[in-house]
Amino acid sequence: MDQVHIPVMINEVVEYLRPEKDKIYVDATIGAGGHSEALLNLGARVIGIEQDREILELTRQRLERFGDRVIFVNDNFKRLPQILEEHNIIEVAGILYDLGLSTFQIDSERGFSFQRDCPLDMRMDGNLELTAKNLVNEYHENELSRIIRDYGEERWARGIARSIVRNRPLDTTFHLVEAIRRGIPRGARYPKIHYATRTFQAIRIAVNDELEVLDASLSTAISKLTEGGRIVVISFHSLEDRITKWSFLQEAKEERLRIITRKPIIPQESEIRSNPASRSAKLRAAERICQNYLSPE
After folding, report:
1. Coil, strand or helix at 241
2. What SS3 state is found at 126?
3. SS3 content of the chain, % helix, strand, coil (to 5)
């Protein structure tokens, strides 16, 4: 990897997962492998899931020194129960979801960043049919507005959607950035972020079906934890954090989880200074407390 991805809140991940030698942990979003490497260094065994084939191959090379203590799986974490079954694993000691983009993906030519002029793709899994280009050029204005409003929490969603439609066809990220700019009222302020941030986020979420996949995955993943096993989720925007919070609350209400982090843990100031990408991260953790768990249908 030309640029090493810095894993977010790595000390907190180790603290809350409490990895033990020879026990099995799932890194549901292994990415560049930073968190998994920390677990492996402490003697754990890891199943690393990653839907991005390119980054998984690079991570395989990075972690090859750990031999058969790490299993690499090119798949979506929504299939976590099936993946464990395929490897004859009944339960695991811990599960980690790090929902952020890796440096590799941001720097790729797939259009995740509005700071690089690239084709509008945004697929984490290259086998997906829907691309960002399809979405911005084919979706109805009302549907575009809904996506930008609901997934990006963008105040000017309707104007941006209207501008996207008026400026079609859009082929590259810079074309999309310009359409977004034209859809925002003159004088509108974005004090902490670029004006294209929320729209790019919304389109990426829609292309990869991220929120629905996360919601469906969490409860089935929890069912695979051994008693005392822990689940840790690192999210980077409020929608992911909200899904995690309510999933944990529901499982706690059913007396299947004990919530460890009553409020989300955020990075320390020293980490934010050394890794600005961590500034929006929130970590939640919970522990499985009941063996009699019926996995949702």
Report:
1. helix
2. coil
3. 45, 15, 40
Which CATH number is correct for 10-105+210-288, 3.40.50.150, 3.10.580.10, 3.10.450.50, 3.40.1160.10? 3.40.50.150
Token representation of residue 53 = 């084939």
The DSSP secondary-structure symbol of 102 reads P
Asked whether the beta carbons of 94 and 232 are under 8 A apart, the reply is yes
Sole residue written with tokens 């008026």: 166
State the Cα–Cα distance between residues 136 and 20, nearest whole angstrom.
47
Amino acid at 292: N
> Rounded to the nearest 5°, which phi and psi values hold at 150?
-75, -40
Q: What pTM, to 2 d.p., does this model score?
A: 0.92
**And the tokens for 3?**
């640029």
Dihedral sign, Cα of residue 217, residue 220, residue 226, residue 227: positive
Residue type, 266: I
Identity at 230, one-letter amino acid code: R
Residue 287 one-letter amino acid = E
Asked if residue 133 lies in contact with residue 175, where contact means CB atoms within 8 angstroms, the answer is: no
Contact by Cβ (8 Å): 86, 93: no
Per residue in 240-294, pLDDT tens? 999 999 999 999 999 999 999 999 999 999 999 998 889 999 999 999 997 555 5
Q: Are 58 and 104 in contact (CB under 8 A)?
A: yes
